[in-house]
Write the structure tokens for this entry.
Amino acid sequence: MAHFQNNIETDERPATPEQKLWRAVFMQALQDAFGINPVQLNTLEQRQARDWMKDFTHDFAIVCENAGFNPKQTFQKLKRYDLIKKGIVWSYSTTGRRMFKGIEVNK
């Protein structure tokens, strides 16, 4: 998950203190949603975190913008990560095509 933030498109300027704070908030939401943090959340809290990332909402876009991330690209990468974690998308081939359970398909 640490590499997820490195793969998100940002502008070329160094992050401001406010952007660093929003990035920390975003990364905490990722950890909560995917259950990869050391503090165990109850089922309701984890579901709420996952639901927040399920749809491209105004709130999601605002958090991304405040963090200095491209909201649409961030959402697409998040969806791809979720599909990989669920085992629906196995990986991406060297040609950039998605592979569903080992079957390469066109974009």
Q: What stands out?
A: The beta strands are 89-92, 98-100, 103-104.
